[in-house]
From TrEMBL:
Keyword tags: Hydrolase, Magnesium, Manganese, Metal-binding, Protein phosphatase
Domain PPM-type phosphatase: residue ranges: 127-381
Keyword Lipoprotein found: no
Catalytic activities: O-phospho-L-seryl-[protein] + H2O = L-seryl-[protein] + phosphate; O-phospho-L-threonyl-[protein] + H2O = L-threonyl-[protein] + phosphate
Phylogenetic lineage: Eukaryota, Viridiplantae, Streptophyta, Embryophyta, Tracheophyta
GO molecular function: metal ion binding; protein serine/threonine phosphatase activity
Ranges where the record places region Disordered: 65-84
KW Hydrolase (keyword) present: yes
InterPro entries: PP2C, PP2C_BS, PPM-type-like_dom_sf, PPM-type_phosphatase-like_dom
Signal peptide: none
EC code(s) of this entry: 3.1.3.16
UniProt xrefs under SUPFAM superfamilies: PP2C-like
Name by which UniProt lists this protein: protein-serine/threonine phosphatase
Amino acid sequence: MSFSVAVCNSPVFSPSSSLFCNKASNIYPAHETLTVSLSHLNPPASSPSAASPASPFCLRLQKPPPKLGFRSSSGPGGVLKRKRPTRLDIPVAPPVGIAAPMSDAAAVNTETPREEYYREVEREGDGYSVYCKRGRREAMEDRFSAITNLKGDPKQAIFGVYDGHGGSKAAEFAAKNLCNNILSEIVGERNESKIEEAVKRGYLTTDSEFLNEKDVKGGSCCVTAMISDGNLVVANAGDCRAVLSVGGFAEALTSDHRPSRDDERNRIESSGGYVDTFHSVWRVQGSLAVSRGIGDTHFKQWIIAEPETKIIRINSQHEFLILASDGLWDKVSNQEAVDIARPFCIGTDQKQKALLACKKLVDLSVSRGSLDDISVMLIPLGCFF
């Protein structure tokens, strides 16, 4: 059995308008002033030298303090000059744009130096390919996991994609524990209803374990897919999505958990919460744009970890499965994703071509303006029949 876990990650600041509306008297101290005579505009009867500071034909300008780096030349008609500011030493950010090292045999060490700065992560494993690209955030918040060759059987595996928010801790925890918790609960189960209950317990157990961790923060959306005994068991909590290609036609196996869904909004409001829009996005308590997931301790009354599960029997018409975070689905439709990936995921050399398909899907989302982390996993199903 091989196991891998990989690391894959805005407030709007408006400066105070008072910075731009202060009067000149508030900018410089009033103890030094310059007097400029305007007598040439309307000469008084007496000598120009008789003009006083109180004259209506004089404009009193405040002299900038020396500490601001200004100096004036002496004599009439002096010109104010600005000194060149001191050079600032800006620290150089860690290098980005390289792929994180990974291993088939064991979980990636999450303490790898500067791992959080990796911009791209790609992976080709037994029966799957995955490509992740960091968005505008400083750290990658997406994660993925894969456990293949279950019980020594190459036709059994379980996969997951996790989209963190408020940090990467919840996604990282889910990537390390969720699939194992599902497997622990599902041992020996054959009945579909019992399998669904086992998957549910796996999600709830992972959520409970994470909330018991020290210094927990943030949450994670999750989508998992288990292939066992010819069955495909897909579950999700949040807006990571699973899409199946059935003879070239896209079939969504999950439904996004967002507060814009009527049933999710009713559930939240019936438990004392509220749903509102912010920047045209429906949000729970005016904050979270998803209504289910792992973590989110401060919203746990409304953000539940209970998944929705679907079980199907796979056959030759089921070509490949796409698991992806909303960084893809917000910009690329289900059918578009299948149409782009299908030429790469059927026929020979599926393993190498599937990774190219992942990259093409990510690049398409980026080209359409996605600023989010994007993770795409492709699972050709032919090897699991």
